[in-house]
Amino acid sequence: MNLVRRHSAFRLRRLILPALAAAYLGYFGFHAFHGTYGLIAAAEFAEEAAALEGELAELRADRGELERHVALLRPANLDPDMLDERARAALNMIGPNEVIILP
């Protein structure tokens, strides 16, 4: 009977290291997919980056438009119509015989 006990205890000892290795790999495998910087989070980061790139493109277009308006108001190439438009928009005034067409 002593031989049977030693043999079954020996089998359990041989399973400890593979069980610990499986737990270790399972832990890190789970976090490789679901962790803060895992594969699922990487896909979400890519979606967010695409959305932010679109927003950046819109902001650059707005900035280009504003820079074009500012360039027209510089003394070297002052456009009288643009000056008149900006003054009327800032003062919120129109003449008695003028028609305003809003964009």
**Count of DSSP strands:** 0
Provide the structure class. mainly alpha
Q: How many structural domains in the coordinates?
A: 2
Residue windows where pLDDT falls under 50 for at least 5 positions:
none
Query: What is the global morphology?
Result: rod-shaped
Mean pLDDT: 83
**SSE order:** HHH
Rg on CA atoms, Å:
36 Å
Strand content: under 5%
Description:
The structure is a single chain. With 103 residues, the chain is mainly alpha-helical. The chain has 2 domains: 1-34; 37-93. Helix content is 77%, strand content 0%. It has 3 helices and no strands. It has helices spanning 2-34, 39-72, 80-91. The N and C termini lie far apart (97 Å). The model has no long low-confidence stretch (mean pLDDT 83).
What's the quick description here?
The protein is mainly α and 103 residues long. The protein is 77% helix and 0% strand.
Task: From the structure above, extract its key features.
single chain; 2 domains; 0% strand; 3 helices; mainly alpha; 103 residues
